[in-house]
Amino acid sequence: GEAGGSLERRACSARAYSEAAAAYALRYGYMKSWAGLLRILCVVELLLGAAVFACVSAYVHKDNEWYNMFGYSQPYGLGAGSAYGGYSYSGPKTPFVLVAAGAAWVVTVGLLVLGMSMYYRTILLDSHWWPLTEFGINVALFFLYMAAAIVYVNDINRGGLCYYALFKTPINASFCRVEGGQTAAMIFLFVAVLVYLISAVVCLKLWRHEGARRHRELLEQEVGHKLLLTSNTVDRPREEITYRQLKSVEVKPEQLNGHIPAGHIPKPIVMPDYLAKYPAIQTNEMRDRYKAVFNDQFAEYKELSGEVHAVLKKFDELDALMRKLPYSPGSIHEQERISRVLQEYKKKKNDPAFLEKKERCEYLKNKLSHIKQRIQDYDKVMNWNVQ
């Protein structure tokens, strides 16, 4: 009875961990993808758009002052080409900047809300056309913000009139004075231009990534279908494990569809034993066992690592000494001495005992890193589940 209860508790613990891991991957895995990066960029774009709108709106009173003094015509009613050396300015253009920033903000909100929906993840990401459509939208917003930035910079210097000495009278000085908020608006405008350009590039990356994913899934389906047709003599559990392992490996098309040349012997892929011996942790008992193995073998790794690094340091010193030896010694006795040094050096470098220690040290390093990663993954999921 106690054994049955223990097995049941372990099964429930494993099931709770698997559910927590699935929820963790569903929540955080998406934000680590190209589509998640696009959503983060959307948030940055919204913040920049709000800053642009606030900074530009803070100085709208300058537009009223301009129209109160000059009206809706050229300053003093003169032509642009006669009095001011070819400079042309017909009045403030801040309404265009506000409309452009507001339109881009509304579109970006739509992209953010759509990108966080399940329809986007399950339907649009599987389509061939949506990443390119999102790329086109970001490019259009890039050009819109670029136009708004150019218009605003031109508006700050009043179409170039502020560069003309005859225009910069004491009365007009306030129109040419650039306030701190206007400088901030220009900075935010050009940063938004850059962020929309980055979003367009990320959309292209998303398009290529999703296309490769669809192609890979199609190949896996074809291979899985062939395995089901040709594996009638294999028992069912082994067939499922083989297919699951095959799905985890990214297979290139040329490796599947090509042929092995005559005389070519494929090189076997040797998988480390700890990959199968230490799978993902699902219970606290497994975590404690992994931690015990880590603590037990870390001492051996630390000792081996110290010995190997000491020998390698001596080899480095010998390398430096060998580089200082003369290439053309004068006497026969000197040649024999250098030859003995070279032979001794090669012998030490190819010493089987040292090579075995070095290989064991590298194996332990990779094994301990694998176990440590398993423990960290389990702790991360369980801590998130508690929170």
UniProtKB/TrEMBL annotation:
One Gene Ontology cellular component: cytoplasmic vesicle
Principal location listed in the UniProt entry: other
Transmembrane spans: 37-60, 96-120, 132-153, 184-207
Protein's UniProt keywords contain Transmembrane: yes
Entry membrane topology: Multi-pass membrane protein
Superkingdom of origin: Eukaryota
Subcellular location(s) of the protein: Cell junction, Tight junction; Cell membrane
Stretches assigned to the OCEL domain: 272-383
Keywords from the named record: Cell junction, Cell membrane, Coiled coil, Membrane, Tight junction, Transmembrane, Transmembrane helix
UniProt-listed Pfam families: MARVEL, Occludin_ELL
Residue ranges of every copy of the MARVEL domain listed in the record: 33-208
Listed GO biological process terms: bicellular tight junction assembly
Family per record: Belongs to the ELL/occludin family.
PANTHER family tied to this protein: MARVEL DOMAIN-CONTAINING PROTEIN 2, OCCLUDIN AND RNA POLYMERASE II ELONGATION FACTOR ELL
Name of the protein in question: MALD2 protein
Organism: Casuarius casuarius (Southern cassowary)
